[in-house]
Specification:
The chain is an alpha/beta fold. The chain has three domains: 209 residues, Rossmann fold; 93 residues, Roll (Ubiquitin-like (UB roll)), CATH 3.10.20.600; 90 residues, de novo design (two linked rop proteins). Helix content is 43%, strand content 13%. The chain contains 18 helices and eleven strands. A five-stranded mixed β-sheet has the order 8-7-11-9-10, with helices on both faces. Strands 3-2-1-4 form a four-stranded parallel β-sheet, with helices on both faces.
Length: 420
C-alpha cells in the first residue's frame, strides 16, 4: 500500500514526540528555519499541491497573497472536517499530530505568522486530547514558543474546539467562530489573506494540506509535483465508506482510477463490481456518479470535474444496487437543511424546500412536476449565497436527478421506491 507522506501513521505510539523524532520528525523544520519565507512559498508553489479540504485552491498561491506589511499575521488550521463521509483529518491528528504541528510551524515561518490556531471539530474529543498533548510536548521541547529550536523565530500554537457546526468548515465562518462570534460566513472580498482573524492577514489551510508541507520542503516541490498527474499533483487521502468490503483511509497518488481504488485498496464492492450503482466521489456535497462513469473515471480534480462532480474532500461514498437514490438524497437534504446558518435567504428557505420535497417524494407523495420544481429551487440556490453551503445542498439533488431520473419518476408514478 502506498505510504509516501503519511508513512509513520501505523507505528506504535506514533502520536508521541519521541516516536516522531526517532523517524525523522522535525528535521525538516531545521532546514526550513534556515530558508527565507519566500523560498518556502516558492517550493510549495512548485509542488502544485492544492488544498485538500475541498476547494482545491493551490496552497502556495494562497500563501503568496499574504501582504508583506507590519500587521500581525495568523495561520489557522481547519480541522473541523464536517463533510459527511470524510474521516481522514481525524486520523492524521490521532496518529501523527506532530506532522501537522511541524507543517504549521514551517507554514507560519513562510508567511511570517507568529501565532497559529487549530480549529478542531467539537465531536473529536479523543483527537483534541491527543493534539493538545502533542502541542504541550512541542512547547516543552522548545519547538514552539518565543524561539523555535533556539533560532529566534516565534510561533505559538493553540487548539480551539468548535461546537460541531458544518458551516464552520467554511473558512470565514470558522474565523467568526474562532473570534467568539456566531459561526456565519463573511462576505468576500475582503479575503482572509488581507483581512482575516482579528482583522489581520490570515492563511487558512486544511489538516492534510499542512501535514504534507514537511515532505514537500524535505524533498523539494519538484519531487512532489512528479507524483499524481498534471494539475493534480501529489498524494491524496481518500476516505472510502459505504458498500465496500474494506472501508478506510487510503493514501494514493492522485489520478488513480476509481475502480482500482475500490477494488485493490478498499477490498472491492460488496457483492462484486456489477453490484455497484454509483459513487459520491468527494463527500456528500458532490454529485453522484453512475456506474458507467465509475468504470473509467480517474480520481483527480479535472477528471472528476469533467465527469460532472467534484473531488472535494476525497470522501468516496460507495452505493450498491440495494440503495434507493431518492431516499439517500432525501436524507442528505435533511442534513443540509439542519446545518444552514440561516444568513442567506436562498439557502435558509431553499434548503427547507428541498428537504420537504425530497421527504414528501420519498414517502410516496410526489406529484407530476416535482422534478422540475426541485431543479428550479436548486437553481435559485446555486451561486446566490455568501458561502458554498447552498451549493452543497443543491448539487446532490441536481446530480441525482441527472444520473437517476428514472428513480425519481418511478417514485412519483408508483408512490414507492424502485428498489425491492
Amino acid at each position: 500500500m502506498t505510504k509516501i507522506v503519511f508513512k509513520n501513521i501505523h507505528r506504535e505510539n506514533s502520536h508521541t514526540l519521541a516516536v516522531y523524532r526517532a523517524n525523522g520528525g522535525y528535521q525538516t523544520l531545521e532546514k526550513a528555519l534556515s530558508m527565507p519565507g519566500d523560498d518556502i512559498i516558492d517550493e510549495v508553489k512548485r509542488s502544485g499541491i492544492r488544498g485538500r479540504g475541498g476547494a482545491g485552491f493551490p496552497a502556495g498561491l494562497k500563501w503568496s497573497f499574504i501582504p508583506k506589511d507590519d500587521r500581525a499575521k495568523y495561520l489557522v488550521c481547519n480541522a473541523d472536517e464536517g463533510e459527511p463521509g470524510t474521516c481522514k483529518d481525524r486520523d492524521i491528528i490521532r496518529y501523527d499530530p506532530h506532522l501537522l504541528i511541524e507543517g504549521m510551524i514551517i507554514a507560519g515561518h513562510a508567511v511570517k505568522a507568529e501565532r497559529g490556531y487549530i480549529y478542531i471539530r467539537g465531536e473529536f474529543v479523543r483527537e483534541a486530547e491527543v493534539l493538545q498533548a502533542a502541542v504541550e510536548e512541542a512547547y516543552a521541547a522548545g519547538l514552539l514558543g518565543g524561539s523555535v529550536m533556539g533560532r529566534g523565530v516565534r510561533f505559538d500554537l493553540a487548539v480551539h474546539r468548535g461546537a460541531g457546526a458544518y458551516v464552520c468548515g467554511e473558512e470565514t465562518g470558522l474565523l467568526e467562530s474562532l473570534e467568539g462570534k456566531k459561526g456565519q460566513p463573511r462576505l468576500k472580498p475582503p479575503f482572509p489573506a488581507n483581512i482575516g482573524l482579528y482583522g489581520g492577514p490570515t492563511v487558512v489551510n486544511n489538516v492534510e494540506t499542512l501535514a504534507s508541507v514537511p515532505d514537500i520542503i524535505a524533498n523539494g516541490g519538484a519531487w512532489y509535483a512528479k507524483l499524481g498527474v498534471e494539475k493534480s499533483s501529489g498524494t491524496k487521502l481518500f476516505s472510502v465508506s459505504g458498500h465496500v468490503n474494506k472501508p478506510g483511509n487510503f493514501e494514493v497518488e492522485l489520478g488513480i482510477p476509481l475502480k482500482v481504488l475500490l477494488e485493490e485498496y478498499a477490498g472491492g464492492v460488496r457483492g462484486g463490481w456489477e453490484r455497484l450503482k454509483g459513487v459520491i466521489p468527494g463527500g456528500s456535497s458532490s454529485p453522484i456518479l453512475p456506474k458507467a462513469v465509475c468504470d473509467t473515471v480517474t480520481m483527480d480534480y479535472d477528471a472528476i470535474g469533467r465527469a460532472g462532480s467534484m473531488l472535494g474532500s476525497g470522501a468516496v461514498i460507495v452505493i450498491d444496487q440495494s440503495v434507493c437514490i431518492v431516499r439517500a438524497i432525501a436524507r442528505l437534504s435533511r442534513f443540509y437543511r439542519h446545518e444552514s446558518c440561516g444568513q442567506c435567504s436562498p439557502c435558509r428557505e431553499g434548503t427547507g424546500w428541498l428537504s420537504q420535497m425530497m421527504t414528501r417524494m420519498e414517502q410516496g407523495k410526489g406529484v407530476p412536476g416535482d422534478i422540475e420544481l426541485l431543479q428550479s429551487v436548486a437553481d435559485n440556490i446555486q451561486g446566490k449565497t455568501i458561502c458554498a453551503l447552498g451549493d452543497a445542498a443543491a448539487l446532490p439533488v441536481v446530480g441525482a436527478i441527472r444520473a437517476f431520473r428514472e428513480e425519481f419518476e418511478y417514485h412519483i408514478t408508483h408512490g414507492r421506491c424502485m428498489v425491492a
